[in-house]
Amino acid sequence: MDNPEATERRLSREQLLKLAAAAGGATLLGSRIEAGRAAVDWVNAESGRLQVLDWAGYGNDGGQAMFASYVKAHPGNKPQFTVMGNESDALAKLHAGLHPDLFRPYVGWVKYFATSGLVQPWNPKQIPNFKQLNPFMVKAGQYGGKQYGIPADWGFDAILYRSDKVHPKAKSWGLLFDDRYKGKIAWFDDLNMLVVAGLYLGHPRPWRQSNAELKKSQDFLIKKKKLARLIWSSETALWEAFGSGDIWIAYAWPNDWVQMKNKKLKVVYMRPKEKPVAWVGMFMLLKGTPRPKLAHAYVNAWSSKRSAAWLENNYGYGHANVLARPSSSDLLKALQLTNPKAVTEPAAHLDRDIPRRAVYARAWEQVKAS
Amino acid sequence: MAVAEAREPPAPRRRRGRLDLTTPTLLGLPLAWLVVFFLAPIAIVAAYSLDVYSLDPGPHSLTLQAWHDFLHSSIYLRLFWKSVKMSLAVSAIVVVLAYPLAYYLALSGTKRKYVLLLLLIAPFLTSYLLRVLAWKVILGDHGVINSFLFWTGVRSPDHPVSQLLYSRFAVMLVLGYIWLPFVALPIFVSLESLDRRLLEAASDLGASRLQAFRKITLPLSLPGVVAAFLFVFIPTLGEFITPSLVGGTSGYMYGNQIVDLFGTGFPDWQTGSVLALFLLGVVAALTVVFARFLQPGQVSAD
């Protein structure tokens, strides 16, 4: 009769041996599976630097805080930036052969690009911060039920002026066309000047002007062009001219107001009675990008509450992340950040699609050439 | 005769069956370069201007509509004429300013002429952009010139001379400054290669200095003057950087419009191509016309 204790001991040894064998086999097999998975991951990995086509000031030229968390998480895929002057410039660059992974047109261009065949919709599930974004702006980034644009920064086109030099007769876009300030006015180099002229002239649909209305807006701008000393296309050019006193009145963005205040200039950012034009930056994903996951990660970094607050504090722009608030109450009030629909009626005209954009563009180019 | 023939050097023998590839080889590379990087791009731009190529998706067919619109557009043609006038003025003024400078350097006999020449081209050692931007500091409403006028009491700080910057004047001034050395160099070369014995002969025959200059120096240096003029006129006619930095609204030039049509405006490459080719055609025609003046001038004896 076997000793039960001895049997237990013998079984224990057997078990031990089996366990050891199983453990060894499992380790061997496991390492091969891991190695296999790693190989698959390596094949599937998105390589190379993320290519971003974006506006000046949003890349490594001052906007690093906006995507710092992305860089930290993806040190091997740091973004590489190409500057776009405006959406038309971006379009020209895309046609000329530039292949960014993502770029940032504004809300008025969502339909154009969504139907252009150049972009593809985002997968919001891959953007954890997406649920913190303003639902109105999120919807503005949709076309055909798909999320083509991820809203980010927003702000206004309005008028910046020196309160110690300029005394407006009314809170109106008309200040850009005021004869009293000939040679001290700066316009913006964009076909939106025709929209502004349409607003000022009282055209019912400034984004869809008839031929006669557009001609009237164009003739008006040509007639008033002598008043404008500068038509700016880069903010730095505007800051230099405004900061040095060469310009007193400008078509401007909130960031320009912040920058001039930082220079201790007495400036007012006017909300014209015809209402400012509001815009929302929309990240768009290029069709066929080889780095879609990295692009989503980049946009997620931009969409975070921390990035949003930084943007508001430093650039004076609003951000689609509704949890973010600037530290300055002046800024909070000026941007109406507590109003989730600050960018639309009745506060402002949200920039929108211009069906006859090419016609507008040609009319604007002729204004400049005249 | 037979002896003389025997003494003649033998004619170079040509090896049968071997082609002389020296000339095609030497010419091949520059020709290939010219075709690939000059003629082919021009052909592509021409295709855009005729709507054979287009940014817009969809069917396209050859059309002269953009050319028709351009040639019937008073706005574009006026802008072109404005740019021509500005470039002509800049080129003429700079040539007039550079000629005495080049004359002094070439004919004064100073031993330091190459040092002085180096000083003349020294600004080229700095960035083009920097040189243009420096003028903003000088010409601004509160720049060096206006500050001096405020200090002397000629103008009050509330009424600066604002035409100095963001104006046609600013563009012409800066272009003149930028291109002055380019003008001086070809004139200098043509004057330095002048046969001094002609001047001595003129003097011996009783010609005054002015007569010698008018009858000998000027005609013989004319190819250099024409070359210098073209050196400035051609690039400034299509200039866009300087006007965009210091030109403002009134200093906007034809080159700016081309850039805007290709880029910042809603891309209209068709119209942009028409404008670019028109510029190219005008410049080519002017070059052909002026080329005859690039031959050495004749010295009149009357």
Structural key phrases:
heterodimer; A: 370 residues; alpha/beta; D-Maltodextrin-Binding Protein, domain 2; 2 domains; 12-stranded mixed beta sheet; two-stranded antiparallel ribbon; B: 302 residues; mainly alpha; MetI-like fold; 13 helices; 69% helix; flat
Describe what this molecule looks like in 3D:
By secondary structure, chain A is α/β, with parallel strands linked by helices. Chain A has helices at residues 4-44, 68-73, 87-95, 110-114, 135-140, 192-201, 211-224, 235-243, 254-262, 292-302, 305-315, 329-335, 357-369, and strands at residues 51-55, 80-84, 102-103, 119-120, 142-143, 146-147, 150-162, 185-188, 228-232, 249-252, 267-270, 277-286, 318-319, 349-350. Chain A has 13 helices and 14 strands. In chain A, strands 1, 2, 3, 4, 7, 8, 9, 10, 11, 12, 13 and 14 form a 12-stranded mixed sheet that branches. Chain A has a two-stranded antiparallel sheet with strand order 5-6. The N and C termini of chain A lie far apart (115 Å). The relative contact order of chain A is 0.16. With 302 residues, chain B is mainly alpha-helical. The longest helix of chain B is centred in the N-terminal third of the chain and has 34 residues, at 74-107. Mean pLDDT of chain B is 86; it is low at 1-6. The A-B interface holds A 85-86, 88-89, 91-92, 95, 117, 183, 187, 189-191, 225-226, 228-231, 233, 240-241, 244-246, 357-358, 360-362, 364-366, 368-370 and B 55, 57, 73, 75-76, 78-79, 136, 140-143, 162, 165-166, 244, 248-250, 252, 256-257, 260-269, 271.
